[in-house]
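User: Could you walk me through two proteins back to back? I'd like the raw sequence and the structure tokens for each, with a short line separating them so I can tell where one ends and the next begins.

Assistant: Of course. Protein one, sequence then structure:
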Amino acid sequence: MSGATNDEPFRLLVVDDEPNIRSGLAKGLTRVVDVIETAADADEALDKFAKTNFHLVIADVRLNCNMSGIELVQKMLQKRPQTTVIVITAHGTVETAVDAMRAGAFDFIAKPLDLNLVRQQVTKARAHHNLRTENVRLRTELASAGEVSGIIGSSAAMQSVFQQIRQVASTEATVMIQGESGTGKELIARAVHDLSPRSSGPFIAVNLGAVSETLLESELFGHEKGSFSGASRQKPGCFEQAVGGTLFLDEVTEMSPKSQVDLLRVLESQRYTRVGGEEVQVADARIVSATNRTVSMLIDDGTFREDLFYRLNVIPIEVPSLRGRREDIPLLVEHFLKLFCDRHGRSQKQLTTDAVEVMASARWPGNVRQLRNVVERLVVTHTGDTVTASDLPSELTSLGSFSTIANQTLAEAVEKCEKDVITAALAECNFHREKTAKQLGVSIRTLHYKMGRYGLH
């Protein structure tokens, strides 16, 4: 039988305290896997697991030692998340087996064992492993060819980002992505997940800046039924939903001091409990965070914990602004034109050379997100098949080139720039004034004053 990859044998580790089961499975599965080893207890299993790359582990949930099969599964998957685990359970302990699957096990088999059923489950687990390995290989080949999870960019700045993604994806290291709003930080996080051994697991994203402090603990860690007013049922949190996968914490610097302490504790211990609960849960998720703020300034101000920053910023990835990768703008415009013409049932549109030049030289305070919105607006509202520079929205043409600014007084140029930045921020935040003010770093009163001054109501 072919190996786990083209040149690697598929290895199985059987963990059970009953010698007959160990020997029976070792003999009965010789035609299904390439290499089989056995262990009588958790300590022996962990020792062998540390020395050998086992692709599949079959473990009893009830071991006559200080460690349960569930704890063994958790430890193994924390060390090597790509491992497939099947648990064995006696009649009456199916609930325990389900707990093991929540901890990351692939499936469970009830005792007394039916060897034919075991062979079927192992064959299915092997096929699952091979498919996951092949998916990672194909994604890695695409990344090597210059495209990472659909992210577009041929500029040197983006090629550097792609290289960082390829280097970090195969590890378990936490990643912090920094960059201006609208640069595509979540796409980078998804690329890290897609190229990782956890790619077959879930990708759970939560915007910490959009969740109030009172609800954030429940959002991250879940809650038990009746733990607070309105908690009518048990609810898993983001950490629980992301087991075996990746948890993306967007706007991580917006957390309150208490929430920062809670998150730091989980990152250090890999353990947490649901709100109102006592059962300890294992945090088996790779953490990727993102922020559009300068963290060093927040640390100096005392609004963000330095120790939490070091926990999150093991691998930093800086995403360039659109202004820092202008050579990618024509590629992005072409991509979004095709995307939205297909989506909205429009005939394919083209931009003239002068229109492309204006877009390539525009300020783009909202970055790729703003560019995407502008192209979609053109697709929906422009009736012809050719878009010229005069057809572009004023937010681009008024600040489209530096020569335009040079022909104005400094006061006029500053006012126009301020108006366009506010206009872009309002559009990006769907005209939600509190979010817009927060993004611009001004008070609601200041935003209202500026909107009135520039007639943006």
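----
Protein two, same layout:
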Amino acid sequence: MNEKNCDVVIVGAGAAGLTAASQLKKAGLSVLVLEARDRVGGRLWTDEIDGAMLEIGGQWVSPDQEALLETIEELGLETYPRYREGESVYVGPDGALTRFTGEIFPVGPETEAELVRLIDKLDAMVAEIDPDRPWEHPDAEELDRISFEAWLEQETDDQEARDNIALFIAGAMLTKPAYAFSALQALLMAASAGSFSHLVDADYILDARVVGGLQQVPLLLAERLGDDVLLEQPVTEVHWGAEGGVTVVTDAGLTVHARFAILAHAPVLYPWIEFVPPLPRLKQQLHQHISMGFVIKVHAVYDRPFWREQGLSGTAFSPYEISHEAYDNTNHGDERGTLVGFVSDRNADDLFRVSAAERKERILESLSHYFGDEAKSPLVYFESDWGAEEWTRGAYAASFDLGGLSRYGADLRTPVGPIHFACSDMAGAGYQHVDGAIRMGRLVAGNIVAEARS
């Protein structure tokens, strides 16, 4: 039997796990990172498809993502701004296209007034939320019992205003229908980005990209860790107990004995591991109340960024389109043009009920409603389907069902004996983003170092 010993065994070689491993190693502890996939990066994945470099997973960097920006600088990577010159486009409920500039969509004056009012109200509510402890808000239970859709219905009779406000949380972030998560979960999503206004401002939340792809962050971290990272090692068993320490067994026949373990992967994967003894009942119940969202990230590469010739930025929105948002995703220094579009929740469900050919046709038809018929004929077309990824099973991250955040949120990060938990799904600031994964990796590493020295 192949056996190894270390101070800390880490399950998952994404940004959280590799950050934790790096911090622990700097503190003088021995580590071993076990990754189920044949690559590092988790939900970060930069790959070449039909001769085009595509960001299959996460890719954007915003100004408030301090942990990610610090890591990018420390690794010697460069960023470049997302292309945003020219006008954006909006498709309304009647199918009409309007070109616009600024953050507020080009809607009627009454709807615009409602949008501004709702954004201001949500900003004020978000300011009262601690993203690390949203359950401590005085109205947390009440806000967690009502869906975000129902909350919006209480706030306004303007359907287009409701549709657009919901778009920023439901379609663009949690990738679930607005009736499937609570108002408290929506406030956490906004608080994790600093404000609801930040989510509305695409130029802020989707500010920059890393030259060569964001997966370079985990690739370079793993390179520094060297032989302490092992690929194709799906963990099947975690043994822990009162005597202290932990033993981890992989499907590849490796057994690792350690003082501590960090599970640094999506929490929806915990049921795929046999815990001996089982995790406490509260933890097991908690894990039944979180689930991943569902989104298709669509990449369409053309011989040139033709939309720029029309004076368009490549930024497009509509809660009424199959692809509810799209952006110019042209790579740094590339003469070709790339559009990235997103199809989420119920629209994604519907498209996986038809053939791949029909799915592609419908998505490109939707993009053509923003950018014209030329959008229907890309040189390269690719769909990132993280729901089909065995070791992720959804995107972008996990969120609680109605009532789950106030009921179980405080227990999400709580260690179980020597077992600690870290991933973007349980972050406060940077929730659902690489920044949150790095913050969680740092936090858990610091907790283990303090415990190891006590």
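The radius of gyration is 22 Å.

Let me know if you want the two compared in more detail.
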